[in-house]
């Protein structure tokens, strides 16, 4: 007998705001440990884990095998925020922004990620991982996945290279170049920037990947047909937005030059726009898909769209701001489960479904039960 459900975890991009989903993941893993013991880890429970930019880093931390125990991930979920607090100020030094080129030189990010992940390749992750990037030379998205890496040598890149690439946000960090080898030994080159320009919210990338695997006959864990969301369980974690800060208006931007669109009064309007558009459009589409089949409770989107001030930034890695982001994550757990209003884009509380922590506790039980079924069979 196969399992009953397909399980998906998705984590948005957002720089230092990765602390918000980091906080939520620590809570989810603690609930799984209450059910299945202290060695329970996020990677044990999800068929697919997708992450963009900072979400890609989190995905790697959750799924990269530990060097002393290949069946356990390198990081537990509670270690994610420790990583941000320790390394955020090095990746985003507040006193050394560049006057030319990207705001940061990226040397610390490359050094930290390569030191942690070493020679681990995409085909070695403990769950099927999906990390979007964008090839600036080819002008097209480039998606890396564990399943592709297992069948295509040219897609079996170092996990460190993929993480550095998916985090290379335009204007903030430099593009990342690396090479792999095809099966015949020929070189394949990648010229990559942040996956957020293509899929800042990679939930739809993960779901589409699963449906493609089903069509190909490669998905064997659950008896499921394409587009059947009644058998898919999705947790999608945002990194927060400033949707209702209302920083811009038509009168203001009508006068902007190209420079203003790139940088205006400490903000990056064009990046804010494409990031929010990519994030919200995916949520609207996925939410609509699940609601159409009466499976809306199978899709949990946790997002705070009321960020203000420094917490809206992707790179203010001061202790004060990072603590504020962790506090936002904790408060988000106690907010009511909410779903996006397709007309306004606002997240509206859902009557009768409790708080996000209640929903995560319910999901933890479903995830635990599914894992037990698969182990038994």
Main sheet characteristics: 8 strands, mixed
CA-to-CA gap between the ends?
Answer: 6 Å
Tally of DSSP helical segments: 13
**Beta-strand percentage?**
15-25%
Order of helices and strands: EHEHEEHHEEHHEEHHEHHHEHEEH
User: Can you count the beta strands?
Assistant: 12
Helix content range: 40-55%
Radius of gyration: 20 Å
Low-confidence stretches: none
Oligomer: single chain
Mean pLDDT, all residues: 92
Q: Categorize the overall geometry.
A: globular
Broad structural category: alpha/beta
Protein model, in words:
With 377 residues, the protein is of the alpha/beta class. The protein is 40% helix and 16% strand. It contains 13 helices and twelve strands. Strands 1, 2, 5, 6, 7, 8, 9 and 10 form an eight-stranded mixed beta sheet that branches. Strands 3-4 form a two-stranded antiparallel sheet. A two-stranded antiparallel sheet has the order 11-12. Helix 4 (107-117) packs antiparallel against helix 6. It is globular. The protein starts with 5 loop residues before the first strand and ends with a helix.
Layout: helices, strands, pairs:
Blueprint: E1 6-11, H1 19-36, E2 48-51, H2 54-63, E3 65-66, E4 69-73, H3 80-91, H4 107-117, E5 128-135, E6 140-145, H5 146-151, H6 159-166, E7 176-181, E8 187-194, H7 196-199, H8 203-216, E9 232-237, H9 250-253, H10 258-262, H11 269-292, E10 299-302, H12 319-333, E11 338-340, E12 347-349, H13 356-376
Parallel strand pairs: 1-2, 1-9, 2-5, 9-10
Antiparallel strand pairs: 3-4, 5-6, 5-8, 7-8, 11-12
InterPro entries: Acyl_Trfase/lysoPLipase, PNPLA_dom
Function: Lipolytic acyl hydrolase (LAH).
Pfam families: Patatin
């Amino acid at each position: 007998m196969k399992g009953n459900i397909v399980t998906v975890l998705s984590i948005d991009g957002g720089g230092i705001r990765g602390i918000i989903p980091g906080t939520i993941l620590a809570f989810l893993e603690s609930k799984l440990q209450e059910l299945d013991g202290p060695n329970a880890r996020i990677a044990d429970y999800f068929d697919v884990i997708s992450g963009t930019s900072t979400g890609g880093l989190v995905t790697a931390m959750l799924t990269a095998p530990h060097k002393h125990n290949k069946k356990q991930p390198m990081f537990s979920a509670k270690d994610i925020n420790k990583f941000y607090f320790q390394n955020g100020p090095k990746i985003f030094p507040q006193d050394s922004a560049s006057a030319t080129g990207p705001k940061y030189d990226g040397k610390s990010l490359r050094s930290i990620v390569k030191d942690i992940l070493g020679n681990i390749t995409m085909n070695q992750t403990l769950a099927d991982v999906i990390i979007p990037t964008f090839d600036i030379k080819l002008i097209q998205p480039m998606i890396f996945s564990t399943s592709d890496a297992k069948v295509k040598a040219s897609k079996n890149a170092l996990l460190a290279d993929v993480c550095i690439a998916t985090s290379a946000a335009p204007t903030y960090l430099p593009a990342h170049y690396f090479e792999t080898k095809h099966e015949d030994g020929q070189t394949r080159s990648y010229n990559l920037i942040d996956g957020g320009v293509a899929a800042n919210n990679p939930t739809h990338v993960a779901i589409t990947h699963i449906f493609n695997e089903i069509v190909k006959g490669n998905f064997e864990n659950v008896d499921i047909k394409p587009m059947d969301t009644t058998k898919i369980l999705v947790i999608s974690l945002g990194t927060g937005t400033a949707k209702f800060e209302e920083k811009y208006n038509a009168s203001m931007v009508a006068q902007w030059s190209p420079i203003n669109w790139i940088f205006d009064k400490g903000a990056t309007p064009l990046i804010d726009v494409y990031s929010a558009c990519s994030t919200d459009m995916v949520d609207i589409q996925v939410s609509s898909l699940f609601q159409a089949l009466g499976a809306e409770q199978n899709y949990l989107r946790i997002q705070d769209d009321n960020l203000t001030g420094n917490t809206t930034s992707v790179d203010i890695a001061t202790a004060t701001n990072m603590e504020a982001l962790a506090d936002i994550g904790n408060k988000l757990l106690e907010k009511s489960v909410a779903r996006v209003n397709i007309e306004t884009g606002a997240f509206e509380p859902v009557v009768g479904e409790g708080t996000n922590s209640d929903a995560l506790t319910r999901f933890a039980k479903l995830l635990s039960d599914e894992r037990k079924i698969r182990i038994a069979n």
